[in-house]
């Protein structure tokens, strides 16, 4: 259930969403590709359910493409490994052969489970989708990128893959379970700095990879100031040199933090031709398309009637925290038990809450805090009474 409300705050909406059933065909090892009629007549499917949110930047084009392509890429990658995800334990070789006696032992020692193969398929699907978007945008002379948050329910487990700053949480009867974490220039500072350390030419002499508490000035040269490098969780002191006065690779704090002074996110799809303003420095080498995948096994939990998955773009989370959302979810569902449309109504309620009310020229929340000025997209997915065949 989803709502997108732009509240007349921008000229066009850059959020996109998709949800569908994914049918994964199980191919038999002996099945040759020329026996297409057998494939067409096959009734052996794994059924999965998919929801995804895409938050575009630099235009809606990448988000639109991702909403059209990502589920196709996921289905393709799952079909390529279908033989492994239908076994109790993934085999070393998909053909079922055992070339080396230690092959089964290797799988066991590495603790490779079926869910690891599904996670790998999702990671590969994001990369494939990113390549497709890059080719399509180059062919149509379009630019832009998007974040991607995708949820897949398959074989009794929920997989949430995130590349960007959207967020998914499970609101259960007695707990909140985070299913994603945001990827921003601040949260990925060390990865970005390490890349700049390994390939300094990517900064083209225009940026410094070091982090300082503030932008340094000429008077700081010769002083010892706090700093961090890629290998540091803690802080040290550095004797400031003239080169340290360059613009930082990661600059700003919170929602103002920017990668190369350009992007507010450090993972996403697209942006293949994005360059730092007035330079030839490409942003894409720093922008990872690979998601972090979290897994929730329903067999290990007693799911109640009002337990839900909440997925939303940063327009919601900028102004509402997990606890505030969970409180709204529990209160709303408790008060609307007989409403058959209560989950979609809840999604609308969450969006309206984050959008706030217009007072004069400002949008404010109920407590007079500033409301969200971003596009807001929300999925509310009930977890109870899941289909038996998926």
Automatic annotation (TrEMBL):
Residues 28-383 form the PPM-type phosphatase domain. InterPro entries: PP2C, PPM-type-like_dom_sf, PPM-type_phosphatase-like_dom. SUPFAM superfamilies: PP2C-like. GO terms for cellular component: mitochondrion. SMART domains: PP2Cc (SM00332). GO terms for molecular function: [pyruvate dehydrogenase (acetyl-transferring)]-phosphatase activity. Gene3D superfamilies: PPM-type phosphatase domain (3.60.40.10). PANTHER family: PROTEIN PHOSPHATASE 1M, PROTEIN PHOSPHATASE 2C. This is PPM1M phosphatase.
